[in-house]
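Checklist before submission:
- one chain only
- standard amino acids only
- sequence pasted in full

Submission:
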Amino acid sequence: MSASGERPPAVVVGLDCITGLQTARILAARGVPVLAIAADRDHFACRTRVCEEIVYADVAGDELVRTLEAIGPRLESKAVLVPCTDASVLVLSRERERLDAWYQLVLPEHDVVERLMDKIGFYTYAQEQGLPVPQTFLLRSRAEAEAAAGALSFPAVLKPPLKTRTWEREIKAKAFKAAGPRELLDFFDRTAPYTDVLVAQEWIEGGEGNLFSCNCYFDRESKPVVTFVARKIRQWPPQTGTSSLGEECRNDEVLRETIRLFEGVGYRGLGYVEMKRDERTGRHLIVEPNIGRPTGRSAIAEAGGVELLYAAYCDAVGLPLPPGLEQRYGSAKWIYFRCDVQSALHYWWRGELGLGEWRRSWQGRKVDAVFSRADPVPFFLDYWKTVRKGARLLAKSRGARGQATEPASPAVGSH
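Returned file contents:
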């Protein structure tokens, strides 16, 4: 496995997700040779044509490290590692010394990685430093869950400290909104086998438009090279899902708190902070940071003329930084069209979104999460798989209704 061209290659770890696909496309479009590692060879993103080669291996364990050790000696120059999942960030951070001979990996010290990625460590640190976070309880036992159920104001949001593969397989939901104490306890009982600790937080009142984020890159001296602030317009699933439509905006408080958080821990590398403005108080509270990797909405920075990912690559390999580093607060949008149709239909059906408002939300310059004229196959595969899944669910539903209405047959041999 080798990379052509004079520039050092980038190795995108976790191509089999939207974040990985967008990252590969952005870097390849800047002339960076892109190699990729993916766990799911059937994922639509793995049909992209922008990668020079794709290797299939687990991206969440020691197999990833062994794969990179096998690739490293064949590279003509030191490659830049770009992990695109939380699990791969943790693995690469922990094993960085094993890979240092062949790869550039821009991350803070491993204890900082663990502190910011683990919700327990992060919320403990945030409370100690006076960072704006919602009221938080850590549920390690049924007794602690019962105590939180009596102390929290509802609704409340429940989530694991770190989404493991077991959690994603068994629970699937990124987070759960509990309307009252009974729902909190039921969710704790259901998820206790899949996580040692459950995080319970007060719900921050406000719609999805109150959710703001700041994508950023900090250099090796912990100085912010690039920042880009945006807000959600819709997400899927509603309330506790991931963004399906977002737009750039100006929010100096979100920018200020992002820089304060990351400078305070001596951070370096790609980072992201999500905050929500509480409609009751007007305060912006930190929902969570994501560290060491691009996010699904990193591409909105590129759409707004800010070279977030390419600047990170250039800084890692010692190339001059590109000129587009300052956000000009235009009107760039990011959309995952398939999911945003689902989200918009949900709100339209509930009478919370008018057709005119829906149409206006799609107007303006935007980048699609999956569609690319130069690389169209992943987009069509994504839709085809969704249609097939929908058809299977419909057939299953019709079959279940048919069985329910069919009269029972008499028992054979009965009198």
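Reviewer check: The mean pLDDT is 90.
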